[in-house]
Design brief:
There is one protein chain. The chain has about 170 residues and is an alpha+beta fold. It has one domain (about 1-165). It has helices spanning about 10-30, 65-70, 85-95, 100-105, 125-135, 145-155, 160-165, and strands at about 1-10, 35-40, 45-50, 115-120, 140-145. The protein has a five-stranded antiparallel sheet with strand order 3-2-4-1-5, with helices on both faces. Strand 2 and strand 3 (about 45-50) form a beta hairpin. The radius of gyration is 15 Å and the shape is globular.
Length: about 170
């Protein structure tokens, strides 16, 4: 079992500080690095992903696919319809709650940013506590992933082209 945590901020600088703080928390805890992504929405509405990268290899931490998947949560704010079409429907079919998907997609105002993290080893409470210590008063969203949901999300991740997931600053 694992968790997805999203912290939405009014401005990119606060989200980038949070991302750096979460990376430091991982390092201090001595756990395997997990993909941290900062998602920004420009004033024109364009979504950009800024993933944490391993400076030694230049590749995204956590393989990059979790960051790409987290970024996709912000793309489709439509309500799941049961038709099996669209990104929101696929994420819902994978096991993510429709309410969580809608809240995440609507949490990022133009000019805002969010930091997202797939949490396995670090622990949700440690991540929440660190986010609450920081300035910016984020809206923190959380989804618990059971084994079936995690497997279905891995299947969706496998559909993300490797060239997208290996981009340090993938623009969606």
């Amino acid at each position: 079992m694992s968790d997805l945590i999203i912290a939405a901020y009014d401005s990119p600088p606060a989200a980038f500080v949070a991302g750096e703080s979460l990376a430091a928390l991982q390092q201090d805890a001595g756990v395997e690095p997990e993909d941290i992504v900062v998602v920004t929405r420009s004033g024109a509405g364009r979504i950009s992903l800024n993933q944490s990268i391993d400076l030694g290899s230049g590749k995204p931490l956590g393989g990059g696919r979790w960051g790409a998947l987290i970024g996709m949560l912000f793309l489709d704010g439509r309500k799941a319809t049961g038709t099996g079409r669209g990104l929101a429907e696929q994420l819902h079919a994978a096991g993510l709650d429709a309410g969580f998907l809608k809240t995440v997609s609507q949490s990022l105002d133009k000019g805002g940013a969010a930091v997202g993290l797939h949490v396995r080893l670090l622990g949700v409470e440690r991540v929440r506590a660190r986010l609450k210590e920081l300035k910016g008063n984020p809206k923190i969203l959380h989804a618990r992933l059971n084994a079936q949901t995690e497997e279905a999300l891995h299947d969706l991740q496998a559909q993300i082209p490797q060239t997208v997931s290996n981009q340090p600053d993938g623009i969606v």
